[in-house]
Amino acid sequence: MREQIILRHSQNTKVTISARQILIYKAFAPYLQKIDAYAPIHDVELIINQAYRADERKVSRAIVEPGKLSNHLSGFAIHFNIESNGITYFAHHLKRKKLNNLRWNVQNFIRSIRNDKDLRWCGDFIKDDPIRIDHPINVMNRSKWASYKT
Fold first, then answer.
1. What angle do helix axes 104-115 and 29-41 make, rounded to 10 degrees?
2. What are the φ/ψ torsions at residue 15 (nearest 5 degrees)?
3. What is the pLDDT of residues 86-132, one digit of tens each?
């Protein structure tokens, strides 16, 4: 049996789920909790738009063409927007080349993710995906990634 869980956040957490629940693998939960812990430190809220994605599923409004080794396929990635001080930050705001123009707390949130050895802010990728954070299981342990992938 696969260790899938549906993530439900309590009312008092700073991470919010946009209009629906998300599906992740249980093994990703500690990494998501780390992301969740960074949000209130930097006074931001995350709107999680997507997590687990079934292979071969058509993705609407994709910022980057989905990869064959995506951590979404194993339930180890999220797509998000950031809310801070009444402003919602989308992919075009969060691009790597625009980071220095963002409010300090949004910059520091992204810096915390970048400095965390267990997480990747995917805005650092060659084909940047600035609204994605993952745990690089596909790089660290390809066979484990494959076992989680559907």
1. 150
2. -85, 130
3. 999 999 999 999 999 999 999 999 999 999 999 999 999 998 999 99
User: How far from the centroid of its chain's Cα atoms is residue 107's Cα?
Assistant: 16
Handedness of CA 99, 61, 66, 49 (dihedral sign): positive
* Maximum pairwise Cα distance, the chain: 46
pTM listed for this prediction: 0.82
Q: Which of 52, 81, 79 is nearest to 145 (CA)?
A: 52
| Cβ count within 10 A of residue 21 | 11
What is the CATH number that goes with domain 4-148?
3.30.1380
Candidates 77, 29, 30; CA nearest to 53 is 77
Q: What is the Cα Rg of the chain in Å?
A: 15
> Count of CB atoms within 10 A of residue 101's CB?
10
Q: Looking at the chain, how many residues does it have?
A: 150
Cβ contacts of 59 within 8 Å, gap of 6 or more: 53, 66
